[in-house]
Amino acid sequence: MDARAAYDALFTKEGRANPYPFYASLHAHGQALDLSQPRPSATIHGYDAVHQLLRDPNFRVIDAERVDQTRPSWREHPALVVFMNSMMFSNDPTHGRLRRHVSWAFAPRRITALTDSIIRLVDELLDTIAAKGSAGEPVDFMAEFAYALPSNVIGALLGVPEEDRAWFRPHVIAIGGVLDGGDAGKLAAGDEAAAELMEYFARLVDARRKSPADDLVSALVQGWESDAALTETQLLATLTLLFNAGFETTTHLLGNGLSILLDNPDRMPELREDPSRASAFVDEFLRMEAPAQFTTRYAAEDAEVYGVTVPAGTTVLVMFGAANHDPSRFPKPGVFDPDRPANAALTFSAGPHFCPGAALTRLEGEIAFSRLVRRFPMITPAGASTRLDQLALRGFTHIPIRVG
Q1: Cis before residue 40, ω within 30 degrees of 0?
Q2: pLDDT tier for residue 122 given thresholds of 50, 70 and 90
């Protein structure tokens, strides 16, 4: 397929449902593609090119200063206010300052300390699935497990009361829809969700100022007040994006991973018999079906990426999902193979914007899948699954299962 046609096809309904054949067409044309248009000017899709670009300080995230040049009305949209005031859409020195305030919460010893509580949560959710599916009734894995587990884990870490966590699900989905861009309806829904989330966290921040607790919100409130360079809007945006990122990435790892297992039932026994295999399984789930499929960067100065000229100020699309399916790095990329050597997917990005919650997401996935296949050795699909109609975020809204 022509390279331009393959790129355009990614943003059709067919491409959103299954981008991998179109990624394969892009790979046939090299590591990067000149699109010959202003936004983006190129797609960076080969593993080596993506790996290199994410570590190149010349390529910067689209931050508030950059968006002011192209869309100065962005402050009228609460969803964009959340994004542009978060570390996800900040460059140094702001990015480094924001990241330092949250990174301690994801330190290895703190993640390890969460193991027992995650096991308890997983077993409680599996109990619920067992009860609801005891007579062979279909159970929606996404509703009963994939949304519930990470929302409770990140909710407990932040200090969001348990009774409020279910309320976040539609708000997280609405904000995630904004990342696909170009849809006024998705932006309006994202704006409404972002405004409500910011109001929620403003109340929670106020409560923690009056009565601190042993949670991340309390710690961030104290840290923000000692750092005059940070604003209240950045605090609320950080909390909103932390919950969204901690919730959504893990949710889609769980849904995508189960879908892959259901398509490869012959691999379930080895995970059931040897739970230590969970790490390799999770790595392969993350490679095959990256929850976040792409990001954007712009060139601060004139650059060249694998033969593609990128003039200063122009934008490139950086494709994690395509890089993870580059056949020059991952032979037979469409085949599920947890035994791949050096399975270093780029799902969590790389360089200064590597996801700080990657270890927590992996831990939740490893515990969840090792215990799921042991608890339900006869798990099977109970009908067609429903995917999100998005490319930026890849996952499911419903996966009906039977558990025997």
Answers
A1: yes
A2: very high
**Percent of the residues in the chain that have a pLDDT greater than 90, as a whole number:** 75
Q: State how far Cα 233 lies from the chain centre.
A: 23
pLDDT(150) > 80: yes
**Rounded to whole angstroms, what are the CA distances from 284 to 108, 261, 275, 342, 345?**
22, 11, 15, 11, 8
Determine the pLDDT at residue 280. Answer: 98
CA 317 to chain centre: 16
User: CB 123: neighbour CB atoms within 10 A?
Assistant: 13
pLDDT tens by residue, 15-41: 999 999 999 999 999 999 998 765 678
Residue type, 273: E
Residue 370 has pLDDT above 90, yes or no: yes
Distance of CA 379 to the CA centre of its chain: 26
Q: Are 126 and 380 in contact (CB under 8 A)?
A: no
Please name the residue that has the structure tokens 């966590």: 165
Euclidean distance between CA atoms 77 and 82, whole angstroms: 9
For residue 337, the one-letter residue type is D
Q: What angle do CA 147, 151, 155 make, to 5 degrees?
A: 175
> What single letter denotes the amino acid at residue 230?
L
- Kindly report the length of the chain: 404
Residue 292, helix vs strand vs coil: strand
Among 399, 395, 398, CA closest to 179: 395
Residue 96 tokens read as 């480094």
Q: Is 192 exposed, middle or buried (0-12, 13-18, 19+ CB in 10 A)?
A: middle
Tokens read off for 155 = 């909710």
Handedness of CA 363, 174, 147, 114 (dihedral sign): positive
Alpha helices, DSSP H, located in 168-265: 168-178, 184-210, 216-225, 232-263
**pTM over 0.85, yes/no:** yes
Range list of β-strands (E), 255-318:
295-299, 303-305, 308-310, 315-318
